[in-house]
């Protein structure tokens, strides 16, 4: 027991707490936030069996929720050497005379309450979350890198804003790698063994099935990367977006051997041409950069004159940075990790 326990009941949320959590999000995070309006999406994101993935601070006297820390599991494992989580909604009521650093206490409690190996996050606020994670948790912070493969055959771009159209060369010396689209988690299991992938975070078949095959809003394509012998050494997840009169393709996740990516240059060019995509983009941190360059991608830098948008709901024709925090060197980040590839408006 400490001073926080004396005033608050700090615990994992229950199913009966959902309505109160959604109201808290609307009242104290942002009015009209999708997680305050869309119960289906809320349960898809945060409910797993009898568990609701929020740490709550409930005032013992008023019985009101004074703080929340939402998180998302990267797998269904109970193995503490592989159990990783992403942070999501993190908020304490500012004007109720709460004990200082209550939010930090909630973030600390996630470790004993979940038994996780590591808590990581992307999409963190540069001015609030990032300094807190560095100061109170001793974590590393870094900006994710955005790479893009431009369709130079397009004359007028409706999504991107292109000032420099120079094409990046594909490394012709890399072996050809082929893409096979998987229609179900059963197809994935027949061709790829996720247990052989040593990566942080650890993602299992449960996660792949939930996140990509069973998403209630978005449609993802899940590809196996096959070498010239027909062996599947990696998975790649993509999502196409139609917006503002144009189309683009996003690589949102990747699991497996990074070096196979280097041999996909011709496959990417084919996808661009066959689908009239303006570009393919790839936000990542920790992925070996030379393989991305070998496949024909360019890095969007601070002085890049091209605009490769990140926000589509609503559409914002600007470049955007995504910040991440982590503890263990070698941690990988991709666009769909955590809550970064999520709708912002409920279904009509």
Q: What report would you give on this structure?
A:
- This protein is α+β, with helices and mostly antiparallel strands.
- The protein has two domains: 3-116, Aminopeptidase; 145-332, 3-Layer(aba) Sandwich (Aminopeptidase).
- The chain has helices at 3-7, 18-29, 34-37, 39-46, 102-114, 129-137, 185-191, 205-213, 265-275, 289-294, and strands at 8-13, 47-48, 51-59, 65-73, 84-92, 118-122, 140-143, 145-150, 178-182, 221-226, 232-243, 246-256, 279-285, 298-299, 323-326, 333-334.
- Strands 1, 2, 3, 4, 5, 6, 7 and 15 form an eight-stranded mixed β-sheet that branches. Strands 8, 9, 10, 11, 12, 13, 14 and 16 form an eight-stranded mixed β-sheet that branches.
- Strand 2 and strand 3 form a beta hairpin.
- The protein is globular and about 65 Å long.
- The termini are far apart.
- 36% of the residues are buried.
- The mean pLDDT is 95.
- Portion of residues in beta strands equals 25-35%
Question: What is the string of helix and strand elements?
Answer: HEHHHEEEEHEHEEEHHEEEHEHEEE
The major pleated sheet works out as: 8 strands, mixed
Q: What share of residues is helical? A: 10-25%
Domain tally:
2
Named CATH architecture of the largest domain: 3-Layer(aba) Sandwich
N- to C-terminal separation? Answer: 47 Å
- The count of DSSP E runs of length 2 or more, i.e. the number of strands, is 16
Structural class designation: alpha+beta
Could you tell me the mean pLDDT? 95
Q: What is the number of helical segments per DSSP (H or I, 4+ residues)?
A: 10
Contiguous low-pLDDT stretches (5 residues minimum) are none
CATH class of the largest domain: Alpha Beta
Q: Give the overall shape.
A: globular
CATH fold type of the largest domain: Aminopeptidase
Question: So, the CATH homologous superfamily of the largest domain?
Answer: Gcn5-related N-acetyltransferase (GNAT)
- Give Rg in angstroms: 21 Å
